[in-house]
Protein: 3-hydroxyisobutyrate dehydrogenase
Organism: Trifolium subterraneum
Amino acid sequence: MILSMIHCIQNVGFIGLGNMGSRMANNLIKAGFNLTVHDKNNDALEMFSQMGVSTKKTPYEVSEASDVVITMLPSSAHVIDVYTGPNGLLHGGKLIRPWLLIDSSTIDPQTSRNLSATISNYILKEKKGDSERPVKLDAPVSGSIIAAEAGTLTFMVGGSEEAFLTAKPLFLSMGKSTIYCGGEGSGSAAKICNNLALAVSMLGISEALALGQSLGVSATTLTNIFNCSSARCWSSDAYNPVPGLMEGVPSSKDYNGGFASKLMAKDLNLAVESAKLAGCKYPLTSQAQKIYTELCNGGHDSKDFSCAFRHFYSGMDEPHDN
């Protein structure tokens, strides 16, 4: 068994304090973990410093202060740089302090596997439990900024199952559920598949609602039908893309907040590349990729991905009749 003692996950490093990461880090603080943080954004560091949280100038300094390090970064390139770049987590030769490294970024499975293989060649400065070598988990999340703040994220985890079980208190301090997906890279693969399904679902709902409006059926009526019939899905009943129809979702706030179209485009690029490598057909992935690329090129890259209803399909706002 790798580790079973709760004190081996008490000192946590967190790197990447953006919209998602800052909220995840806050929930770890609320849960009583001893946090050390780093981000390139000095304003983000200052915010945590004012909360009494230890801040560091480099990932390596975070590594030296932590038993576990969590990274939440925008892309594969950022992850590689934080781990292997100058003053990265792996900067100190072949010795490393953290026994567990958790990457919650959404990146391609191959990069995740390669990084796990690299980390397995390192030696712990201090043996933890029965282990002399560090381990890595890929643990991307499903959920919006709202879910990150509320601590209701879902973690999809790949890597050592024993490390996953030991780290579960960390995940459940930031989320409502955590699912073990298999070996290295499987968490990253699951996230890509999840977001592919989400993109296609949102486009399908948006297309159907916009068509309905053009044919004289209100989006309110269609949504009521969808939500009690075979078309029911999250994009319809929890995150509806029609402005004025549902409160508390990005479509009710001019598509601000939520999951940016540029991030969905990035994830669809990962899905296309993964499908090519796997030799799979990907017609819907390819079409979704083109639509979100077009939205981004049209200046809607920072708007929530549900903005496809308005900015691709030209769907209309529809004040909801209470």
Summary: Residues 1-5 have pLDDT under 50 and may be disordered. Residues 186-214 form the longest helix (29 residues). The radius of gyration is 21 Å. Residues 6-183 form a domain with the Rossmann fold fold (CATH 3.40.50.720).
